[in-house]
Amino acid sequence: MSKHGLVRKLVGDLPFLDSSPFEKLLDSCIRSKSVFEARRVHAQIIKTQFTSDIFIQNRLIDVYGKCGCLDDARKVFDHMPQRNTFSWNAVLSALTKSGALDEALNLFKCMPEPDQCSWNAMVSGFAKRERFQEALRFFVDMHCEDFVFNEYSFGSALSACAGLIDVNTGVQIHGLISKSRYSFDVYTSSALVDMYSKCGVVDSAQRAFDDMEVRNIVSWNSLITCYEQNGPAGKALEVFVRMMNCGIEPDEITLASVVSACASLSAIREGLQIHARVMKWDKFRNDLVLGNALVDMYAKCRRVNEARLVFDRMPLRDVVSETSMVSGYAKALSVKAARLMFSNMMERNVVSWNALIAGYTQNGENEEAVRLFLLLKRESIWPTHYTFGNLLSACANLADLKLGRQAHANILKHGFWFQSGEQSDIFVGNSLIDMYMKCGLVEDGRVVFEHMVERDDVSWNAMIIGYAQNGYGTEALEIFRKMLVAGGRPDHVTMIGV
Question: Of 83, 121, 248, 281, which has the maximum CB count within 10 A?
């Protein structure tokens, strides 16, 4: 007899002398996530003396909440003749987990005596729904109300800091953790590694990891992802090897991060080895994120045939899978294949458009790159810095000053104020310098360079090459001198200009 059939038989046949059979039936409903069976049990409860039992009512709220049936949970709560703190927390948890945060906030304000669980539900609920500032406000208020933080309080607050890239608040919370009994808790420590990672503070992430007495797969994944996203990507592979040597079995998150690190390094040999492991672990074969990472890795390593093979074998695909193939074909100079893949996409995002525009630019089909940009605008796709960088490269290659100036105006219109500090964007600035220099407007290129708050070696090279090609040899040598003083690293491109 099936579990559902057993529930139906018990509900229909048994005279209940105490509430324990209902408790077991409700537990079964949670495991099966069956709203239908929960309602059947509820209907039977109503016919018994336990209809007003506070413990059973609380369990019903919990069951409906965990089955995702918020309306039923709220009805039970609203009709309760008596409530205790658990009643309030059960419905509060159901509201926050379902994303009904404003309703949860109103309920929280009405609570006669919120406890640690109530506060944690608010901090966690707002953090998970990316309302990070409010999550941190609840965390601070919880502290002001003299409630003791636990691992869930700290973990949710650190998640909010990571979402805001607010390392200063994260450091303050780290200080509180150090003074608490959770300083070596694996959940809290993993959240610390993740927070420092997402804030780009790699050394602190590594220290938090090294300080852990016990580590789990989440801890290792956080550090591997830290190096994969912030660099050096080679360290991600080193941490992965260390993890394997410790006998920790990787999961799909580990493998996707390591494959992405291989893509960044163009480390095809290591990527092939990891792919072979994936094929041995059958449970990962159909994972969408891992499949996307493998397609992207092969595409970035210019192994477009292997990328296509993985792509074709994926049971599920999304815009990320298809965009990786567009990018792979474009980088392999198979722009026709890239355009065909792009045209067949059911859904496109700006990354897809950028990949194809870049492909046309890199393949010397600059007019087509410009036409594609104009089509992007007509489709009301919001361009990114990468879109404009590739458009400017096309304008530079065409020596089309009029179009280049229009692109510059578009950049300012879209808010890429690369000359004004916080939103400094080196890629756009470098592309503008290159465009103006190739169009012979040396002074305009110089003005862009002077207004850049941040520069890299490409910025210096663009100026040196630009001056040299326009007959400004003395100025080229002076910029080269300044590059050395600023700590720039000359390469073969620099030497060509000098």
Answer: 121
Q: How many angstroms separate the CA atoms of 35 and 369, rounded?
A: 53
Which residue in 422, 418, 398, 399 sits closest to 408, CA to CA?
418
* Stated pTM of the model: 0.78
pLDDT tens-digit profile of 15-46? 555 667 777 887 778 787 877 888 888 888 88
Has residue 6 got a pLDDT over 50? no
1-114 CATH pick, 1.10.10, 1.25.40, 3.40.50, 2.160.10: 1.25.40
Q: Domain ranges in the chain?
A: 1-114
Cα-only R_g, the chain: 29
Q: Is the distance from CB of 326 to CB of 338 less than 8 angstroms?
A: yes
Which residues are within 8 A (CB) of 223 and not within 5 positions of it... i.e. 6 or more apart? Answer: 193, 197, 205, 206, 209, 239
**If you search the block for the tokens 């397609």, which residue do you land on?**
295
